Hints:
Layout: H1 2-11, E1 18-19, E2 24-27, E3 42-45, E4 53-59, H2 63-76, E5 85-91, E6 111-116, H3 121-134, E7 142-145, H4 152-155, H5 159-162, E8 171-176, H6 201-217, E9 218-219, E10 222-223, H7 227-235, E11 255-264, E12 267-280, E13 283-293
Parallel strand pairs: 4-5, 4-6, 6-7, 7-8
Antiparallel strand pairs: 1-6, 2-3, 8-11, 9-10, 11-12, 12-13
Helix pairs in contact: 6-7
Amino acid sequence: MAEAVRDFVWSRPYLQPYHSAPTLLIGAASAGPGGLPACLPLLAIGPYVHLPQVHILEWQDDPYSLDLSAQFRATLFDPRNQPTQVTTFGVPYSVGGFGWLTRVQAYSPDQRELLVLPSVDRPARRILRGLTAALPLETRNLVAVTGDSISFNTIYRDRNFAWNIQDMPVTLVLFCHQNPVQWEQLPDDAELADGHASGTDDLLLNADIVRLVLEGAFQSSQLLSSSADLARRLRSRQLAFFQPDGNRLGGSGEHIVCLRPRIQDDRILANARIEVWTRKGQEWQPVREFRVNYAPK
C-alpha cells in the first residue's frame, strides 16, 4: 500500500510535494533511516538545501499505524526514489494532541507538503479538523495520504457526516484493494454519482479472497491437509499474486482514490471531485472521475 500510494502521488504533478528554493545542487543526497541526509557529498550554491517535506504521524497504541508508518518510511527512504525530508510525530494514543501542528511550514505557493495518516477515519478526521482550524492557510497546499484504513464508503457513501469536505478541505489519497466504482456506466452528461449507495471494492475483494483460498485449498479435487501446504500453494501460484514475503504483487488490481476539495475565491464549495485510478504495469490509468455534493451543514 505504501509503495503504491507513494508511486501514485509522485506521478501526479498536482499532488507531488515540492519545495522551491534558489539553490543549485551539484552531486547527490539521500535520506537515511533516521530522517537525516546520508553522508554523500553535496555542493550547494544558496542559503539552504530545500527537500520536499513529508510529515508522518504514528499512533503508538495502534500496531497497524506503527506498521504502515514504517512501510511509508521505507519507501520514502528508498534510494531509488527522490530524496525527501521526513519528520515523524508519535501520537501516544488515538485521541492524541496537536503539539506537532506548529511544525507544519508556513503557507507558500512555492511548496506543497505531504502528511501521512496511518489511521482509521476518526483519528484522522480529528487531526485534519484541528489542523485546518488552527492553520487554514498553511494547509492549503497540504496533501494527506493513508492506506486502506479509511474506506471509500467513508468519503463517498457516508461523506456528509463521516468526511465532510467543508470541515477539512484537505486533499486525501487512499488505497483500495479492488475497484470501488465498478458500477454501471454513468450517462456522458452525469457529473454526480449519488445514485449509487456503496462502493464495490469490499464485495470484489471478498470474492477474490474466497476464490484464491478455494483454488489453493484443493489439489486434484482433494482438500489439502495442512495450512502450511496452503500457504506454499498460495505463494507459488501462477499467475503469481503474492511476493515471497506474503504481500501482494504490485499491479495486481490495486486502486488509488483521490478526494479533491473545490475552493473558489477562498470559499470552500459544498462539493468535491473524486478520482479513481489503477496501475497497469508501471503506469497509472484513470478509472473514473466524478463530482459529489455535500448536504448543507
